[in-house]
Amino acid sequence: MKPANIFLTVTAVQTDAVNSKTQFAETKGKKIAYRSIGNGDTIIFVNRFRGTLDTWDPLFLDSLAENFNVVTFDYTGIGSSSGTLPTDIVDVATDVKDLAEFLELKSITVLGWSYGGLVAQVATLQYPELITHSILVGTNPPGHNEIPLEQAFLDCALKPINDFDDEVILFFEPNSEASVKAAKLSHDRIAKRIDVSKIPSTMDVFQLYFAGGAGLREDNLKFRDQLKATTTPILVICGDHDISFAVENWFALLRELPTAQIIVFPHTGHAPQHQFPELSAKYITNFIQLTTK
Fold first, then answer.
1. Which of 1, 28, 52, 73 has the highest Cβ tally under 10 A?
2. What are the φ/ψ torsions at residue 142 (nearest 5 degrees)?
3. Is the pLDDT at 14 greater than 70, yes or no?
């Protein structure tokens, strides 16, 4: 059932990420777990491979919630949401649309990280009447990309449970003292409420993610070409050493993407928004505000 007053639901929840209440959108035969903090225009966050409501850095969320209504959610079949994660990213992207409709939102910004960046791109191109801006973090464009993921990703990402050392390798830059320090700070912030039992940990679920990624690499629906024609403002934020989605894969599209801007953080890995949460939030805030028609 929908909340009696959706505007009260969006604005009256707890004011910070650590204390925000988990709510449920019962829509289109599924039950999507979500949280909402802050006020203003809405940004819907779309999560990484194995990500849940708890795996976003609270400081990043709180920094954006100073200017926006920040909504995080679990995909269908992931975390606290019901069902099974679809193997087609086009179907996964319907979660974004369905959640927005449940919340009676006429327009949103979508922010996708990693696998979520792939979902965010599909949503942006499928629902241009809904999505006004697209923020893509630590991800790659659809279609063929020259630089594959590194073996270090596979060595760590497929473990049933990741420890801090794995997180440094997966999301930060192990060769940078500053990055490792930032990793510890981010890890400790996330640890304040994380429920590890909700994090996908089995190969059968991993394969659902991989199938979606493989489909987008095949790109039968020509999303890569659609990016070259979109009028939606796109901000790409990457680290200079992302072991899963190399920033260099965007370079082939330079001069071909009419609305995309790219920010590259130095000595940074797959989670630039966790290494630089406040700075990333400022870039995103300025981008949205200064590219809004």
1. 73
2. -65, 170
3. no
Beta carbons of 71 and 36 less than 8 angstroms apart: yes
Check if the beta carbon of residue 97 is closer than 8 Å to that of residue 130. Answer: yes
Cα distances from 22 to residues 67, 77, 79, 99, in angstroms, run: 21, 16, 11, 14
Average pLDDT rounded to a whole number, residues 110-120:
98
Taking only the tens place, the pLDDT of each residue in 242-259 is: 999 999 999 999 999 999
Sheet holding 234-239, edge to edge: 23-27, 30-37, 69-73, 42-46, 108-113, 131-137, 234-239, 260-265
pLDDT above 70: percentage of residues in the chain: 95
Do residues 253 and 141 touch, judged by C-beta distance below 8 A?
Answer: yes
Q: Are 28 and 98 in contact (CB under 8 A)?
A: yes
- Band of residue 1 on the pLDDT scale cut at 50, 70, 90: very low
Which of the 8 DSSP states describes residue 130?
T
Cβ atoms 72, 53 nearer than 8 A: yes
Quick one: 206 exposed, middle or buried, by C-beta within 10 A (0-12, 13-18, 19+)?
middle
Instruction: Set out the domains of the chain in order of their start, with CATH numbers.
Output: 6-290 (3.40.50.1820)
The single residue listed with the structure tokens 């975390």 is: 79
By DSSP bridging, strand 42-46 and strand 69-73 are parallel
**How large is the angle between the packed helices 58-65 and 277-290, nearest 10 degrees?**
30
Cα 132 from Cα 109, distance rounded (Å): 6
Shortest CA distance to 171 belongs to which of 46, 54, 51? 51
> Over 90: is that where the pLDDT of 13 sits?
no
